[in-house]
Amino acid sequence: MKLQTNRKLGAISLTAILAISVIAVGVIVGRNLVQKSLNPDSQAQVETIKKIANRDIDVELRAPTKTDIWDYILGGNLCFTSSPPSANGKFRVELSMRLKSESNATEIVEEVIGASVSKIITNPSTLRCGSATLRRADFNAPFNIPDRDRWTEACPEINIKVTSSGPWRPFPQEGIATLDKNFLCPDGVPNATPEPQQSTPTPRIVPITFTPISATPTPTTSPLPKITGRIAVFSCVEPTSVQITLCDKQNATKCTDVPFTSGPSTNGVWLDDSSGDRSYLYSYSISQDANGAALVRGREYVIHSANARIIGKPFVSEGARNTTVVAPGSFDLTIHSQEQTCSCQFHAVSNVYVRDQSGNLVRTTLMDNSALYGSANDMQIIKQQNVSGNASFLGKPMSPFNNGQLDVSNDFYDQEHNPDIDFGYGPYGKDGLAYVRLFAPDFDVVGQVCTSFGPQHACPNESFKWEKNFNSKADSNKDFHGLRVTCGTDISYGWIVEQRPGLSDFMTTEGIRVPFGEMDFNNDGTVNTADLIVCLDEYGKEGVSLTCDLDNNNKVNSLDFSIMVSSQGGIVE
Q1: Which of 108, 330, 542, 569 has a 20 to 30 A CA-CA distance from 309?
Q2: Quick one: CA torsion of 40, 42, 47, 49, rounded to 10 degrees?
Q3: 72: domain range?
Q4: EF-hand domain: which residues (predicted)?
């Protein structure tokens, strides 16, 4: 009898197990069907991105991918069809949806659901489509899908746009694409009216007698709250570590540094993206408070700051500190360290050329190591003092030539970031245009040439290769205009000269030009001993009508005598 009863119980238990298994399979299948309706990782994903015609921005987009921290990340790259601003220009890629307002469900708002880090434009030419130095800007825009009860339609679109700030003229068109309805609904728009189901017969209930076993039901737990966000670090050197500091709202002195980790963590900071364009994007997740306990849902916490360690130095986030965040919540931070990590290299080689018998350019050494020859840039000329007040003062050479050239290398970091240090090349500061004057009194300039080897288009007219020939032999040809002075300049430029058949004037080392006609006192067509005797007779005298006062300072001194001696043999043209 006992054996028969056990067999009945065994048969009934098997039946119950099979029934439970069928129910479990149904639950799993049903759950998978629900997840599939929100899962764009299907073949339809290829067709989800619909680009919008945009006259200002050329963009390439990659299909969104899932991540552990964010629902998805949209990646891509872009360039601008017109020149971006050269300073203080920014842009970022945003994703937004039309949603019901959280505060008022009857109000519809366009809400940003994710965005890339804002990028600062440091070199406009590299972002201009069609530029010889184009380097398209990479971006990654993480985003989360809002709760379905906030959607305004069964399968909404997600808008993708590029927002910009700074001195854009004009601002570029924002809309670039949409994630189509089939991104959220790859199997089509769900039918709001459920299909009628066939009735199933009610199963016959067989009473079972058994001894109940006491069991404690498994409690349903909600996920622990976290504070998440991004830390954008702008630097020319990758940080060795990045941390974020969380403090207690009630006790501001009780804080904890969330550690830097090698990858995604529930309580850590990790590198999420490195675009290679002087920017590093980190994600963070905070799940523990200053005491090591789990964060409490709905409680206020304080994000004190974020800090990055770069080349052994700490750099702290800018903007609002001690920001209150309610768990779960999100907050983004930015760290700027370009000033201390980015060098500003400048390299320029100036040359003096002549043409050989075949018409080829060769450097000449006729001006080497002489105080009469050389060059000076516009800032150097501005700073030179015209002691005598001579109206013909044109400056004086500051740098002599060696083997027909002058090689200048500089790091403008100090000048760029310290207003008390003068900028050595050009009065317009960083990324300005300068000119350089050639001092060669017995040469005429018949042409100028320039080649830019670095990433910057630093030759005249912002070109990489430039050449100009002059029809006349004016002294103004000796001024080389339009040389770009900025970080990354690497140019070789020079003057093409012809030696004059005879001198027509004399240039002093102080930059004073005296025509030979003014030194030919007896008007015999040459500067000779007869003219020198006049200077000897007046040497040491002062007055307003002295014949040998060649530098016009109302006295005849050693400078006047030196000009006369150096000009002996000069022919008046």
Answers
A1: 330
A2: 30
A3: 43-184
A4: 507-542
